[in-house]
Amino acid sequence: MSISAILVAAGSGTRLGGIKKQFKDLGGKPLLFWSLQELLDCPAVAQVILVLPQEDVAEFFNRYGRKYLPDSLLLKICPVAGGSTREESVRLSLKELRTETRMVLIHDAARPFLSGDLLNRMIEAGSKWGAATAAVPAKDTIKLSMDGEFFTGSLKREELWQVQTPQIFRREWICQAHQNITQATDDTSKVETLGQKIRLIQGDYRNIKITTSDDWELAESFIRERSPVAMRIGQGWDLHRLEEGRSLILGGITIPSDFGLLGHSDADVLTHALIDALLGAAKLGNIGQLFPDNDPAYKGIDSMELLTQTKSMLKVKGYTVVNIDATVIAQAPKLLPYLEKMAARIAEVLDIEADVVSVKAKTHEEVDAIGKGMAMAAQVVCLLQKTALI
Ligand code: MG
After folding, report:
1. CA nearest 330: which of 339, 343, 321?
2. What's the CA-to-centroid distance between 288 and ligand 1, angstroms?
3. Confidence class of residue 180 from pLDDT cuts 50, 70 and 90?
């Protein structure tokens, strides 16, 4: 049985901040990616038709898709432009169904906590009954009021269910339901007008629909619960030789000196040790593997550019920097006047507070190569916090 999923994310609402809700960061990735990932991970789902606002369709893969998903999963996604209402968006996306599609599963991207278990139960119900929706028993007493002032009656709570998504339908039923013009705007009601019965599947109270800022806070608390805070320590060390006539760059700051550090890049020993500490904490390899010193692309490169790339890699993995403590070991020149500037520059590139970056300097008591002014070294420790479930 071939299943196509329609993930509805076409809303243009920005009331939860300046960005459209479906693209707002929830626990390290845009809201829509939570349910998208679950749908893509489901082997029975052959295609995901992702309904987006018109203006976001063309750039979806470049701006978002490739950043959060591997190419192998992107192949399953078919982005389409939605309409002005949810109903129209579903109707437009039905035109993109593959020929072999037998069942259509519809889900709202505003419900990020779609579980694999619920998805599987929906698919099972769909294949058995032809149409099903997730729903949960109403918890509150629900009363009727015609004028909004006085109640005109009560409904029996034990007979009331709150309807959620996902919903699943035989292809011909949902397509026919959307061809007929009816008053019903909800997919299950449309299919019911064809005389078909909708099977009720026990949903999940955690499968919330995010509408208000209170919902958003609740969603964040669910994520925090699932993902206990993970702290990771990293350490990095580096050494470069000094050579007369080279520029001396430390922490992205050029320091007046007759001697500078020798290396394939700008040889910023402090930044190199920092990059190794960050990569080590996130278990992302080391600076030599990621930016090889025999690659012409990195010849003479500003190490701050390498730090920027490292920052992006940490972000994709869901890490943020808690603090950095660095020591430069150099006999000369006196580095004290530059230490705060280095810290500020590192903080600026990593987009963190200068307050959490400490840069210190020590001499090497005139012993060994560093003490004799032949080389400089740096050592760095950092603490990362995993803030996303990635
Ligand atoms: Mg180095």
Report:
1. 339
2. 8
3. confident
Dihedrals φ, ψ of 22, to 5°? -65, -20
Surrounding ion ligand 1 within 5 Å at CB are 238, 272
Residue 53, pLDDT score? 95
Q: Is residue 26 within 8 Å of residue 70, measured between CB atoms? A: no
Contacts of 287 (CB under 8 A, 6+ apart): 236, 238, 272, 275, 276, 279, 306
pLDDT reported for residue 128: 97
pLDDT at 147 over 70: yes
Ligand 1 center from residue 149 Cα (angstroms): 74
Gap from CA of 298 to ligand 1 centroid (Å): 12
CA of 293 to the centre of ligand 1 (A): 9
Average pLDDT of every residue of the chain: 93
Residue 166, preceding peptide bond in cis (omega within 30° of 0): yes
Q: Give CA–CA dist 381/383, Å, rounded.
A: 7
Amino acid of residue 56? D
pLDDT tens for residues 123-137?
A: 999 999 999 999 999
Residue 105 has pLDDT above 60, yes or no: yes
C-beta atoms surrounding 367 within 10 Å: 10
Split at pLDDT 50, 70, 90, the class of 226 is: confident
Dihedral angle sign, alpha carbons of residues 39, 45, 46, 52: negative
Q: Is the pTM of this model over 0.85?
A: no
